[in-house]
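Purpose: get a first structural picture of the assembly so the mutagenesis plan has something to point at.
Setup: two entries, given in the order below. No constraints added.
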Amino acid sequence: MGTRFTVNGRAFDVKAEADTPLLWVIRDEIGLTGTKFGCGVALCGACTVHLDGQPVRSCQTPVSAVAGRKVTTIESLSRNNTHPLQKAWIAHDVPQCGYCQSGQLMSAAALLEKNKNPSDADIDAAMSGNICRCGTYARIKAAIKTAAADMRGAGRPA
Amino acid sequence: MSARPNTRGLRLSRRGFLQTSAVAGGGLAVGANLAGLSVEALAAGTIHTPNAWVHIADDNTITLISARSEMGQGVYTSMPMLIAEELNVDVRTVKVLIAPPNTKLYGNALLGGPQLTGGSTSVRDGWEKLRTGGAQVREMLLTAAADQWKVDRGSLKADNGWVTGPGGKKATYGQLAAAASKLPVPEKVALKEPGEFRIVGKRTKRLDTPAKVNGTAEFGIDVKLPGMVYASLEQCPVIGGTVKGFDAAKAKSMPGVLDVVQIPDGVAVIADTYWHAKKAREALVVQWDEGAGAALTDKSMLAGMRAGSSGDKSIPLSPVGDAEGVIKGAKKVVRAEYVMPLLSHSPMEPMNFTASYHDGKVDLIGPTQWQDGAQGTVAKALGVKPEDVSVRTTFLGGGFGRRIDVDFIVQAAQISKAVGKPVKLLWTREDDMTHDFYRPQSLHQLAAALGDDGKPTALTFRMVSQSVTGRVFGLPLEVQDPLMTEAAMAAYEIPATRHEMVKHDAGLRVGYWRSVSHALNAFANESFIDECAAAAGQDPYAYRMSLLTGKPRFANVLKMAAEKSGWGTPVAGRSRGIALMEGYDTYMAQVAEVSMQNGVPVVHKVTVVADLGRMVNPDTVEAQIQSSIVFGLSAALYGEITLDKGRVQQTNFNTYPVVRMNEAPAIDITLVPSTEKPGGIGEPATALIGPAVANAIFAANGKRVRQMPFSADNIARA
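Result (structure tokens, whole complex):
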């Protein structure tokens, strides 16, 4: 008896034991490797995905907790880099090694879902759970503002 | 002490490492045998390789080689930019491939030959070599077209992937590549004057960004081979300890477990998924022989360093005059001692590698900073020939020096051989932090005599630390380690100086950590010159400037940093500290603007002025400075690895905190236009932020903190 849930709109019935962290189900069983393992204990944010639209650390989310729910990963932003955040990340050349950036982008996407005009303090509050050892923080902050402006300008409800 | 052999598959002489070779322009072989090259990765159709840097397919797909690993520093873009400049192709249209191991073709001359990414050398090593490589292929394409069309070669142009000639003749590089590849490689080629550059020196978007914003960039952790299994390795909690015995009965009964095998470094559980392997590993019962490191503590190691500073033999570094005599006879003497703790690298991607042993051959795939080191060490460990070991380098989820070591690669290969299947070995964060090759502790003892005008008349500098080069490259004890002396001799004009380095083996394995000894020596030098200024009752900036009369590049960056930061114009509640250094041929000054809150510094702003000569991609230069400051600030504010009973006490980012977004300062960067040869930029800013903050703390509250990190405890004790 597996666990049923959706990832990026597709239904899955996975066989991993109930206590298996969602991270490893997404990466090794479903095969979406954009979500990364960094610390295993929800300290670094590299594994951030959305669960019913809320950002969660998938390394500390047992797969049993997502039964019947909607998971979205970095691969859902867009394949062809057309999401405003992806465009902004490219415009500011944010990534260096790039390893933490899937998690950064998913934290940023959750922020902009709620707040399309975030202040520096709003961005710090939403993003300080995501570690970047390459120190791309200033560019992340700038890119979030660019993406937010893009989303506001695109006429989406603020 | 090291659990691993010293030589690590090294195929260069010790002398070779110590020589700073001139940049090699040649060494390009026609028809190079690129063992391990994944041709599928290049393009469809036949691929021609006029030289080691350029592959051109019949369909005009052009692939440029980066001989260096991409670990965030931007070589995946900057190396192709150098080749593309002379080949006259648009970097946005080329493919990039990280080179397979081949030291003849891809060795790092600045490091004496290994195919190693480190030392902020990539651009400096590649500056002539890669442009020459691009120009050679351009000339070969032109010759091929001239031969084919029977026209004067001087009437042809190679531009944007096309060769064009009189009467509307034209052909793509791809159409000419087969013929060009049969021609001799021209030894002398004309390179563009810098004024003619169309790519080099221009802000260029990184070629790896698109793949890094949608989850498709392949890191080591993402590698998957057909039939691959997963391994989790239990290593002795004391580094260097060995397995006495183990009970795997319970582990073997757990879901998905395929095997449990012993390798020299520990006991590995192999399973059908990573999680199964990791869970079952927790059920292992292992008895360890903890070995020589079982009693180590960081405090005993530091005490050993202090004893070594007077007891061990020192190696002098370019002494001038009789500094000790001057200090003995001086009226005013300043003395201070500085201490740096052990540090972990902790890149975001924990150590991992994928290995496939089959038929006496080994395929290795993953993140490494040292391709031939991985190849040679694995070959030796598995008893196969180096040419039977292929290495494919993925993106590195950070390196910072940790992935120069190849311990985890050897482990993956040994496990694959033991189980006869392709294996992905993945460490936990706890494995990564407790089994690092740590930045060594250091102890600095400085003394200066001050004259009547307050200026130093003599300086002595004694550094005690552990030689990383001794471990990694087998450098003999009596030979100066060039990676301990970096930035030891500061710019300041002092009539008599004596610098001495003491190599002291403190008993823990140590590794190269971003900026290596620059960070150790610059903290001591730039704190100490501040102390001298204070003792002389002078402004720290003006005091430094007065000692740089014949050092224009130093004086210029220092002056600019003071101006840009508003030095001398106070901001309420804040203080400033200044620091200056040359490292990797880059001249840099930083000013940190700090306030003290609850006894610890909050760094609000860092002003950086850098003169690094010619630049390849100024945007990447800025990114590397930003990166280095955040990395160095993490160490300065928080970084400390401690040991008890030989066990590293820090296991994750809660006990080894790093700077997060809310703690990251604003960084104001000025790049000095320069026609000097290129300097390295991946590291120097790391070394200066610590002393700049220490000096700002002193300016704030008069406390001179001489020990990193700048914790409440260390500041209170100052």
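Residues 3-75 of chain A form a domain with the Ubiquitin-like (UB roll) fold (CATH 3.10.20.30).
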